[in-house]
Amino acid sequence: MKKRMLYPIVLGTLINSLWVTMRNTIKRNITRTLFAPVLVLLSTGVWSFANAATYHVRVDGNDTSCNGSANASSSTAPNCAFRTVQKGLNVAQAGDTVSVHAGNYSTATINSVRAGTASARITISGAGDGTATLGRTNILAGHDYITMRGLNFAGFTNGTAGKPSVSQTLINVKGKYFTYTNNHMQPTNAGSYGFALGIRTNAAYTTISDSTFEAGTVVNGPSFFNVITLDYGGDNAYINHNIFKNMIDVERVFELWANNIKISNNEIYNLKSTWPSWCHPDIWQTWASPAPANLLVENNYLHDLQTQIGIVEYGITRTANTPWIFRNNVFANIDMCQFIGVEKVYWYNNTFYRVSRGCPAPINGGYKGADKLDVRNNIFVGSGTNDNNGWYAFQSGTGDYNFVSTLTYGKKGGFSEAHGINGGNPMFVNAKSDCINNACDFHLAAGSVVIGKATTITNVSADGTPISAFSTDKDGKSRTTGHWDMGAYAYGSNVATILPPQNLRVY
């Protein structure tokens, strides 16, 4: 019997028709740079061809004479780079990449042109040959699945401090599934002080990860007003593994209006404030009514902040069974507290060190509406305004299995819980009053009085509300069933206070 010879162009009329279609597509895109071409033999014997194009952008390119296919100047036309990012976006299709080479492109506003798909995103990427700086960017409604990575963002406009203009937001997102990753953002113009708005989204499924946001700490110098605003419609946002640092008089890092937000594994530090009349700096704030549902804040490291931790305005309504959960976070050397005016805000296994020196309780639910709080397994050391406060307050709720002490590990007056611990040494590896110039480490050393003294947190809060279960510490180490340790770290966890952003570009 002769062996049958199978060739992808002669498998019959159907296969021939498919091949002609693919061949014409390839011819039509002959000037495109093929990124990762793949031939896949499917189980039916049909060959499929996947291709994606990379369009280059350079400061010495040309939008008219160049086709964007090569990393070359306009002197090599037509196979050379475009001059503007906008031109690259004009021609990019789903799956394509606009590769931006070193240079300053921040004076031009960029507008998205079309959507990518879940499996073929449109990507705007730094080329990796130096800093590529972009400015104002609009991801328009319906233009979903767009990624920006490896870029520097500047180009903020000047304005009046304390009176920002939403229309001047640097990156305005209205397309779903937008991803901002491995980027750097920094206002450099003094007129941005109290005016600059970083990223604003009212589209669902935005991811902001592995990026750095900074400004400077010079009074009246470059800085943000808001860094990230999750507006109505910006539900299911994920803010992960970023660094927010070195800012002056920032009004808030996160302004929250959306639902189902997760803020995790970020480091926020060295935010200073002169407390001008228009500014009361917060890490997160909302006055939305009803309050945003299902906020999860976990595994973050906040330190050396002349700010409030945050504020949830009192007098706003709350959708039933949509709690805010704070767990496995480290708060160190922070001037003010978390103000709470709504029900069902839960705090599990957080570490507070020298927090709330300007108000009596780091978790301050002393306002109307702060009901059904659940505060368990936390460590409070040297916090509050004196030795007779410095833990939590609420209108109603549960507080137990918490540790409280003075800065020298003595007892505090007025603290009482059925299973709480008042005084003693939690044996932090390296706790300091300055965690910018010192490598602070809030892991537990052997002999800590909080080891094995916490309770297991299940998937139901103390008031019976379903919550997302967790069984690990800030480092991801499994907590011992039935014998949890208090605070953000389980004893024996890896000695590292914050996992750095992955593949972070240095500018």
Beta-strand percent range? 25-35%
Helical residues, percent: under 10%
Shape: elongated
Please provide the count of β strands. Answer: 41
Query: Span between N and C termini?
Result: 66 Å
Strand order of the largest sheet: 3-4-7-10-13-16-19-22-25-28-31-34-37
Task: Describe the structure in your own words.
With 507 residues, the protein is mainly beta. Strands 3-4-7-10-13-16-19-22-25-28-31-34-37 form a 13-stranded parallel β-sheet, with helices on one face. It has a 13-stranded parallel β-sheet with strand order 5-8-11-14-17-20-23-26-29-32-35-38-39, with no helix packed on it. Strands 6-9-12-15-18-21-24-27-30-33-36 form an eleven-stranded parallel β-sheet, covered by helices on one side. The protein starts with 12 loop residues before the first helix and ends in a 63-residue tail after the last strand.
In brief:
It is built from 2 helices and 41 strands. It has 507 residues and is mainly beta. It is elongated.
Which short descriptors sum up this protein?
507 residues, mainly beta, 13-stranded parallel sheet, 2 helices, 31% strand, disordered N terminus
Write the layout of secondary structure elements.
Elements: H1 13-28, E1 38-41, E2 47-50, E3 54-57, H2 85-91, E4 97-100, E5 103-104, E6 110-111, E7 122-126, E8 132-134, E9 137-139, E10 146-149, E11 152-153, E12 171-173, E13 179-181, E14 184-185, E15 196-201, E16 207-209, E17 212-214, E18 224-230, E19 238-240, E20 243-248, E21 252-256, E22 261-264, E23 267-272, E24 282-286, E25 295-298, E26 301-305, E27 308-312, E28 324-327, E29 330-334, E30 338-340, E31 345-348, E32 351-355, E33 363-364, E34 373-376, E35 379-381, E36 392-393, E37 397-400, E38 403-405, E39 421-422, E40 428-430, E41 441-444
Parallel strand pairs: 3-4, 4-7, 5-8, 6-9, 7-10, 8-11, 9-12, 10-13, 11-14, 12-15, 13-16, 14-17, 15-18, 16-19, 17-20, 18-21, 19-22, 20-23, 21-24, 22-25, 23-26, 24-27, 25-28, 26-29, 27-30, 28-31, 29-32, 30-33, 31-34, 32-35, 33-36, 34-37, 35-38, 38-39
Antiparallel strand pairs: 1-2, 40-41
